[in-house]
Design brief:
With 282 residues, this protein is of the alpha+beta class. The chain has one domain (26-281): Deoxyribonuclease I, Chain A (4-Layer Sandwich), CATH 3.60.10. The chain is built from six helices and 13 strands. Strands 1, 2, 3, 4, 5, 12 and 13 form a seven-stranded mixed sheet that branches. Strands 6-7-8-9-11-10 form a six-stranded mixed sheet. It is globular, with a radius of gyration of 20 Å. Mean pLDDT is 84; it is low at 12-23 and 101-112.
């Protein structure tokens, strides 16, 4: 009889544990390159509402003050504040990182006439408690945004590494070698920053790295690659209309369980596909 009672207690305990696991909240992450949009991307707004991510890493986000000019983009006379406008439309909090320009003192938008800022950004459903810029070399940065989720502080990082091709530089063996070497150094900087025991950390962005070159392998030794762990198919994200290569990634520290990771079917308003990952804190 005692043995039977112990079995019943064990079954009850296992059911409670399973129910707790099922009810544990998942953290949905998205990363997407905005392709330097200078207008509010209504189709991307619609996609975000449908997929309902908790936090988003954007690349090529633009701020341009009124009267700004650009030789590679037609900027409206009234200026551009795409991230701020998207945050307002979605009801999210935001951080903008100024990845390619001399950083101002504030993490929020500057009000300097004739200035254009271009870089990574973060949108979050959860209130952003703190932000900072972490230089990783050659003008690129990690944008850190800290928020509370399930009672724990989550450190979320958005980044964008240099591509093989760039307007004005073209595509050449010299450019390919330069970009490859620069990204390797930037990845080393990230690994040094995260260390071997990164906790409660998520890194997402456009790494412009092709898997055949194994540039991301060192990073995968300290964090889990969402698509590698749970994705299906090739994971290709660029170009959006016919994805051929995987350049957009979501990484999570080992204390996260990766539940799912997939590439969105959406292919409008940008030249990349979005990557989405569902995570759970262990």
């Amino acid at each position: 009889m005692k043995r039977f009672a112990n079995i019943i207690i064990l079954i009850f305990f296992l059911l409670i544990c399973d129910l707790s696991a099922r009810n544990a909240k998942k953290l949905r992450i998205m990363t997407l390159n905005l392709s330097s949009s200078v207008s509010l991307p209504s189709n991307i707004i619609k996609m975000i509402k449908e997929l309902d991510p908790d936090v988003i890493s954007f690349q090529e986000a633009i701020y341009a003050s009124p009267g700004s000019r650009s030789r590679w983009r037609s900027v409206p006379k009234k200026g551009v504040q795409v991230i701020q406008e998207m945050a307002r439309a979605l009801g999210y909090h935001y951080t903008f990182g100024y990845g390619q320009n001399k950083p101002p003192h504030s993490m929020q938008f500057p009000d300097t006439s004739g200035t254009i800022y271009w870089g990574p950004a973060v949108l979050s459903k959860h209130k952003i408690l703190s932000t900072r810029r972490i230089p990783i070399g050659t003008g690129r940065i990690l944008v850190e945004s800290v928020f509370l989720f399930n009672g724990k502080k989550i450190k979320f990082y958005s980044t964008h590494l240099p591509p093989y091709w760039w307007p004005g530089y073209g595509l050449s063996a010299k450019r390919i070698k330069w970009a490859y070497n620069v990204r390797k150094e930037q990845i080393r900087s990230m690994i040094k920053f995260f260390g071997k025991k990164a906790r409660n950390s998520v890194l997402a962005g456009d790494f412009n790295s092709l898997s055949i070159f194994n540039e991301m392998d060192p990073l995968m030794k300290v964090m889990n690659d969402g698509f590698f762990m749970k994705g299906k198919g090739s994971g290709a994200t660029w170009p959006a209309y016919l994805p051929l290569v995987r350049v957009d990634y979501i990484f999570a520290s080992r204390d996260f369980k990766i539940l799912d990771c997939f590439v969105s079917d959406y292919n409008e308003d940008t030249d990349h596909r979005a990557v989405i990952a569902d995570l759970q804190i262990k």
